[in-house]
Amino acid sequence: MLGLFGIICCSASKVVYGKYIWDPLEIASHWDGPSGRAGAFFYLNIRRGVIITTVIAGWVMQPWKIIHSAQSLLAFMAGLGIFLAPIAAMLSADYWVVQKQMYDIPGLYRAHGRYRFNKWGTNWRAAVAFLISVVPSIPGMAASVDPSIKGTIGDADKLYFMFYFWGYTSAFLVYIGLSYFFPAPETHIAATIYEDSDIISAAEGFDKGDSELGDEKKMGEKEVVSSV
Predict the structure, then answer these.
(1) 94-102 contacts, C-beta under 8 A, 24 or more apart
(2) Torsion angle, alpha carbons of 114, 116, 118, 119, to 10
(3) Distance between CA 132 and CA 178 in Å, rounded?
């Protein structure tokens, strides 16, 4: 949504001011009159955005409750581990097992590169592995925050006591399994690509090899003709 409004504002600046202006501060500098000055006053730059975010986050998260006691602090930190464990597992599995340490590094920064996976830009294998790893630990996390619900979740909170082991192991194995049975062949390469020039050099080398073979073939044909 933010990107959409940015494109709209930039396109509108061409109509209003005769040129494309990407900088919102420069656009605001063209606003004249009382309404323009009022709009510029309420414009949210980076500094104002940080202040507002800090105030809202400090109130919504209520950090004083998190550090109220050692138990609440540990419960909060453990809750983060539920989500961090599968992420670490999938990163490790993809690097060491699935891709075998070979990546197209420039392609990692391309929105429509080989690692887009689908039109939504989502690796569904990672999403499935993440859900399988996280969901079983959620009841235990809820019980650690609110002990009064322990009687309603049965033994589901037992898994929470080893959430990192479960989260890492399950996500690691599920991701590898899905990548094996449902591979994404466009992401598998024979060697790491560090720069775009590596691809160009390889293509030039291939073309050069073809031309050399062609020259040798022509020379061989000439020798045969001359001998006849």
Answers:
(1) 94/175, 94/179, 97/176, 97/179, 98/175, 98/176, 98/179, 99/187, 99/188, 101/192, 102/188, 102/189, 102/190, 102/191, 102/192
(2) -120
(3) 12
Q: CA–CA distance from 1 to each of 8, 51, 121, 136 (Å)?
A: 11, 22, 17, 33
Collapsing DSSP to helix, strand or coil, 104 comes out as: strand
Q: Is the pLDDT of residue 117 over 80?
A: yes
Of 32, 10, 7, nearest to 21 by C-alpha is: 10
- Asked if 13 and 20 touch (Cβ cutoff 8 Å), the reply is yes
Q: How many CA atoms lie within 13 A of 60 on its CB side?
A: 6
Chain mean position to CA 145? 30
pTM of structure: 0.60
Could you give the percent of the chain with pLDDT greater than 90? 31
Structure tokens given for 143: 């019980």
Model confidence pLDDT, tens digit, residues 160-193: 888 889 999 999 999 999 999 999 999 999 999 9
Domain ranges of the chain: 2-60, 68-194
Q: Do 133 and 86 form a contact (C-beta atoms < 8 A)?
A: yes
Q: Distance between CA 218 and CA 199 in Å, rounded?
A: 29
Q: Read off the pLDDT of each residue in 50-61 and give the average, rounded to a whole number.
A: 75
b/e sequence 124-163, b meaning 16+ C-beta within 10 Å: ebbebbbebbbebbbbbbbbbeeeeebeeeeebbebbeeb
Query: Residue 84 carries which side chain, given as an amino acid letter?
Result: L
pLDDT tens across 132-167, in order? 999 998 888 878 777 777 777 777 778 888 888 999
